[in-house]
Structure formats: structure tokens, C-alpha cells
Amino acid sequence: xxxxxxxxxxxxxAPRATSVNVVLSSKVEPWLTQTLKRINRVKRPLNxxxxxxxxxxxxxxxxxxxxxxxxxxxxxxPEAELRKDPNPLVEALFNYQLVHVEAxxxxxxxxxxxxxxxxxTPDSIESLIEYHKEVHCVDIAANTYDWSEKEIQVxxxxxxxxxxxxxxxxxxxxxxLEGLEEEGAGELLCGKSEEVKNNIMGLFLPLLPPPPRIIDxxxxxxxxxxxxxxxxxxxxxxxxxxxxxxxxxxxVLPSSPSTTSSSTxxxxxxxxxxxxxxxxxxxxxxxxxxxxxxxxxYSAPQVSAPIPSLPLPSMLAQQPCGISVGYGGFGWDxxxxxxxxxx
Length: 343
Fold this sequence. Notes:
alpha/beta; 11% strand; elongated
């Protein structure tokens, strides 16, 4: 890309130069010749490149050579002070104003970049600065929450706008000179006015408040099995798992090898003995449990629950109560043959 060649008059806060910098190519375009002949009241010879350059330079350097780049509708007052009226036409007349953004040409290049450079006039710059201070800054300050450096940020934003609007230079193609009028005035054509409007309105930046502070929340460390608290947790869970549902011990068969033979022999005895002749031990053995209807329903014991050790039939043989313990206990009396048979 070729370098951007701009004169010193295009710098920020620089006054307007008495002469415009015009650079033409070795061959003049026909449309430029027709434009210069149209705007000049006095007929001037335009037979060479130097004649075109001299005529264009004198025309654009005239104090009356002011171009209207765009027109922007701006508020007269902040939003809190706007007039409310049921008639929208009355509101528009009292609350808004049409600002014409004017500029003058500081540079014409038809060799490298084929562009025309415009710089805003002091009056247009002053109007935009006043609107930014009196309306834009007031609105953005009212629409954001307060913090300690709010006023400082608003002033800084306004100072940055002053610098940006004074540095603003709009570049257009050299074909924009077709809109040249008498005495060097002119107006942008082909929709360039909308582009200027968007570029200028892009300089009105919003006020960005600082993000809210994030409060650090101190959270306790996670409970791990290796920590003391975690060890207590695992102990509690193990205790809960080890609790088993109550199971009637009379439903559990003894693991004695003589279970089959004892149950076979006693089946005949139970058939011949009446229920009234059965004697209960006194006192009741400590390992006997009362009858409960909970045994009618199946309850699956916990897998991790240990199986209690049950007394074997040989252990029950030492009880003096005989076979009567078979109904309330867990084993069979080995001395059932000593009892007389009841027919």
C-alpha cells in the first residue's frame, strides 16, 4: 500500500492552509475538464495539466470552498429535559436540531491513491464538541451506576472525543469532485454522506463502568477418605450397612450333621404327643426368642451382616427341659427316648 501523504494542514488543531495541495497525473481525465468548465464563470484555458492544476488549486483554496459532508439529527437537551408532547412534530421541533457537518478539502491526489481528503471546519467541530459535552456525556452518566471514578472517566471520555474529532479526516475517491459547485463549494454524492455520518457517530463512545468485583468465597476442603472427617464419614456409612433386618432364628436350620436323622425321628414323636402335654422350660432359655409375625414376610439380610453363631443340638442336650425346648428353642433333645410314648 502506498504511504498516506497528507499535508500539515490535515493534522489535529491545525489551521486551514492558504493553498490546497493538488497532485494531478500526466493525463487529465475528461470529467475533470468538464467539471472545471462548468463551475468557472470566467472562461479559462484548460489545455494542459498545469492549467488544470492551477485552476483546481485556486478554486479549492477559496474561503467559500466549503463542502457539506452530511447532516445529523441531534438532541438539543439531555433525555431528562426533553419536552413531552402528544404531537410528535412539536417534540421534534423543540427537542432535536439538524447539524450540518461541513468540511474543506486539504489534499487531492490523482497519482498514488486517487483520493480527496476532507477536514472538518472549526464551526462543525465546535458544534459536535458542545453536543458531546452537554447532551451525550450527561445521558451516559445518568444511564450508568455510580462508582468512585465515574466523573473522572466522563471527563476523560470527553477529552478523547475532542482529540478524535479534531483528527477526523474523511477520504473519498477523486470522483467526488464531480459534486463541485461554484466558488469551490460542493456536496458528497453516491451515498458517501451516510458513510461520513456513521464514522462521526462512531466517535461518540459509551461509558463503560468497571466490572463488579468478585468476592472470593472461602469454601471448606472436600471430605476425602484419607482425612479425619472422611474417616468418620466412612465409619458411619459402614455402621449403617452392617445393621440387618430382624430374622427369626427358628427359621435357620442348625448345621449339625445329625440334623437329618433327628428331624426324621422326631416327626413321629410330634405326631403322637399332644400339645397340652408339652412343657415349657422354666426359666426360659436366654437364647429363645418370642414368636413374631415379621417372619411371615421375607426380608433380605444385608450382605455384609455377619451371621450369628447358633447353638448346636449337642449344646442343647445339657438343658434339663427335654424335648420341650424344641418348640421355643433351636435344637432337639437327645433324651427324647426316655419319655413314655403317649398313645
